[in-house]
Amino acid sequence: HVIFCALSPSEFNRVSSLDSAKEIWDRLMVTYEGTNQVKDTKINRLVHDYELFTMLENENISSMYARFNDIINALKAIEEAKDLSTLPLEDLLGSLMTHELRMNDQVRNESKKKTIALKASKDEERDED
User: Fold this and answer.
1) Are residues 50 and 80 in the same domain?
2) Do 80 and 95 touch, CB atoms closer than 8 A?
3) Which of 12, 46, 73, 75 could be cross-linked to 7 through a Cys-Cys bond (beta carbons 3.0 to 4.6 Å apart)?
């Protein structure tokens, strides 16, 4: 009942004929994450995009960086979406602990960053070189 309440009308129509929460969950998971074959194809496409990444013509640095981050984040999301039906509980716990450590390291590194300001100076003498 809780799953049905959380679904949009189109999602509800997709799973309303199913009998168990497990069947509903599996159908939604395949719908939004895809099968293992789809995940492998997505990974291969993203790795290809990563390996051949170049700055587009008339693209500024900011949009190039955003496009690069999109590729990296998509790869991380697919990598972290493990198949829980075959994943032992110990491995799931290990993945969660690793993720927590990475998040803590990221927060710690952000707080350690220092800003360096450089002062420009102008020479009074100009060389004709």
Assistant:
1) yes
2) yes
3) 12
> Domain of 1?
1-34
Model confidence at 63: pLDDT above 80:
yes
Q: Which of 37, 92, 93, 46 is nearest to 69 (CA)?
A: 46
Contact call for residues 84 and 92 (beta carbons, < 8 A): yes
Asked whether residue 100 falls in the same domain as residue 43, the answer is: yes
- Verify that 41 and 14 share a domain, yes or no: no
Cβ burial, residue 11 (10 Å; 0-12/13-18/19+):
middle
Cα-to-chain-centroid distance, residue 62:
18
CA pseudo-torsion sign 84, 80, 88, 99: negative
Q: Do residues 52 and 91 share a domain?
A: yes
pLDDT value at 120 more than 80: no
